[in-house]
Amino acid sequence: MIRLEGSKVAADLQAELTELTAKYREQGIVPGLAVILVGEDPASKVYVGRKEKMAEKIGIKNFAYNLPSDASQEEVLELIDQLNRNDEVDGILVQLPLPAQIDEQQVLQTIDPAKDVDSFHPENVGKLMQGLPGPKPCTPNGIMHLLKAYDIPIEGRHAVIIGRSNIVGKPMAHLLLDENATVTITHSRTKELAEITRLADILVVAIGRPNFLTGDMIKDGAVVIDVGINRLDKKLVGDVDYETVAEKSSFITPVPGGVGPMTIIMLMYNTVKACELRRIP
After folding, report:
1. Total domain count, the chain
2. CA gap 157, 268 in Å, rounded
């Protein structure tokens, strides 16, 4: 069994992006990332802090906006409109979830697609489905980078995804299809789930339940990607029961240190690429 060390792969990408931003600075161009946080959700604040620290390390300029939890829809939309028109901002990220009084879909659809570094805008989702150039969702694209970094074959393999979210499950399926995998999407209502997961060459688990996937649910030699991050008994665990699954898998991501670092570095990657498309001659 080989651990898929996302931290190491992310560090290599970080070095490449740092070199790129240094080159652009010599031209007087600094990539900019705006992050909007509404409210005081502790987990969201941690995620935003990590993103801001990584941006600073790479040389991306941070535009941080922390709005109160009772902020109105109009306030959020007005801020996004200002950022859409700000030439120093190449990427806009709205940290989810949003408070109940705010329409999440309207907020995400207000972001300029060229600055949509999370790739949640319908225009970018459509490009993904059609295989057209555009920003790719950070977590699924990070997983694809991780698989390729370890030279794991994708073409012709049977990939099974547990989870059908718009953030991970659905875009993950499209990226795998683009690499000629045969893809099955399963979810919480799938019947005889273990019978399907035992057919997988590549298994992506993003169901949001701690230690959900156990060793008896995979075949020998499967590649297992654990997207989950859950706090259980004051400890971070994934959606995969690591000990029992690691015994049978050929490759497996740890939690933490697997998919998480790849998600953050792909956000930086999308920001730098957005800057290139918008401002680099």
Report:
1. 2
2. 29
Give the CATH number of the domain where residue 95 resides: 3.40.50.10860
Question: Catalytic residue at 118?
Answer: yes
Q: Which of 90, 112, 116, 118 is catalytic?
A: 118
Catalytic site residue from 14, 90, 95, 116: 95
What distances in angstroms separate CA 126 from CA 137, 139, 214, 270, 273, one per listed residue?
12, 18, 35, 17, 19
Whole-angstrom distance, CA of residue 187 vs CA of residue 169:
9
Q: Are residues 172 and 101 both part of a single domain?
A: no
Active site residue 41: no
pLDDT tens-digit map of 245-258:
999 999 999 999 99
Whether 90 is a known active-site residue: answer no
Tell whether pTM > 0.90: yes
Confidence of residue 234 (pLDDT cuts 50, 70, 90): confident
Q: What are the beta bridge partners of residue 3?
A: 252
The confidence score (pLDDT) of residue 42 equals 85
Q: Which domain holds residue 189?
A: 138-259
DSSP H helices, the chain, are 6-26, 42-58, 73-84, 104-110, 122-130, 138-149, 169-178, 193-197, 242-246, 259-279
Looking at the chain, the number of H-run helices and the number of E-run strands are 10, 11
CA 65, 278, 266 angle in degrees (round to 5)? 60
* Amino acid found at 64: A
Domain of residue 193, CATH code: 3.40.50.720
Catalytic, out of 14, 51, 90, 273: 51
Residue 101 lies inside a defined structural domain of this protein: yes
Please indicate, yes or no, whether residues 191 and 253 belong to a single structural domain of this protein. Answer: yes
Tokens of 64: 């941080």
Instruction: Summarize pLDDT for 56-96 with one digit per residue, the tens.
Output: 999 999 999 999 999 999 999 999 999 999 999 999 999 99
